[in-house]
Amino acid sequence: MPPSKKGAAANGDAADAADAVAAAAAPPAKKLKPAPPPPAAGTAGGYPLEPGIVNPETLAAAEELAAKYQAAQPYKHTQVINPFNPELLRQVRDEIINNIDATYKETDLFKLFQTGDMGNLDQLDPDTAAKLPGLMKLKRALYSDEFRQFVTTVTGCGGLHTRTDCSCNVYAYGCHLLCHDDVIANRRVSWIIYLSDPDDPWTAEDGGALELFPLEGGDKHTPAPNPTVSHLPTFNTMAFFTVTPGVSFHSVQEVFTDSKPRMSISGWYHGDTPPEGADKASLAQLQQRVRAEAVVQHTPIAGGEGALSDEDLGKLIR
After folding, report:
1. Could you tell me if 139 and 224 are in contact, meaning their C-beta atoms sit under 8 angstroms apart?
2. For 189, what's the count of Cα atoms within 13 Å in the CB-facing half-sphere?
3. Pairwise pLDDT comparison (288 vs 222), residue with the higher score
4. What does R_g of the chain's alpha carbons equal in angstroms?
5. Phi, psi of 81 (to 5 degrees)
6. The Fe2OG dioxygenase domain covers which part of the protein (predicted)?
């Protein structure tokens, strides 16, 4: 039978009374502070330098490293030994191997495997980010205010922008990077952190050295045919140099070993404006040359306006 109106009213009063008792017994809800918004993609976001990532002795040696950096030949550079927590770099290495895809790339300048831009790691979905905790810690440390100040002190390059710009590069057997000066847009300092196998130390016989070239006869924009400085990609070393148009010529020697890859994370610290003389950089000169050659007039071939024959297409496909 359907309940009477009187019974329904009684039931409603009882329910209201029960809700009032429950509300009185419940503790007042805590007001939580809203979480700060995540940093913008491609910027350091003001992250502090977490302890336990960078070797404190490395940071303390900034002035000493600066003196050596300014006197280095063939141009301003340095290679820092053991700058980071080795266990963290082992973790980063494992995360890259197991959780990041690298794409094979080959041009007339380089042959290597490269990941996408890792400057925007903070924008990853939670599931993906959970697989890369070490890598995210390292990237935040590299672009923290404290570490950028360390790089500024060593290089003397003035203030460096908070923009992040880095990727992972893997050079397998036969991979290489030919000589160039690295000048693109506002790059000020190039850096490389080596993640080669810590349990199978890299040797000169393995190839893959970072090679630095002097200028031919001291003239800008003309690198000498042979490098005068070579740095092995030893685990937990960091090399960096000032990006200087027509001066900072370097290459990655061909990798000779087929038993282990040359793995590294590399990137740049940027300034607010391009370096002086950027219009004379090697890339700019190549682009100007292409534009000049593109206006050359070609004489049409008589009878060449028609469609290609199957025989012609076969030859072109081969």
Report:
1. no
2. 31
3. 222
4. 29
5. -95, 130
6. 162-271
In this predicted structure, what is the pLDDT of residue 37? 45
Neighbours of 240 (CB within 10 A): 23
Three-class SS of the chain: CCCCHHHHHHHHHHHHHHHHHHHHHCCCCCCCCCCCCCCCCCECCCCCCCCCCECHHHHHCHHHHHHHHHHCCCCCEEEEECCECHHHHHHHHHHHHHHCCCEEEECCCEEEEECCCCCCHHHCCHHHHCCCHHHHHHHHHHCCHHHHHHHHHHHCCCCCCCECCEEEEEECCCCEEEEECCCCCCEEEEEEEECCCCCCCCCHHHECCEEECCEHHHCCCCECCCCCEEECCCCCEEEEEECCCCCCCEEECCECCCCCCEEEEEEEEECCCCCCCHHHCHHHHHHHHHHHHCCCCCCCCCCCCCCCCHHHHHHHHC
**Hey, what CATH topology would domain 51-287 get?**
Jelly Rolls (2.60.120)
Residues 78-115 pLDDT 10s: 999 999 999 999 999 999 999 988 888 888 788 888 88
Domain boundaries, the chain: 51-287
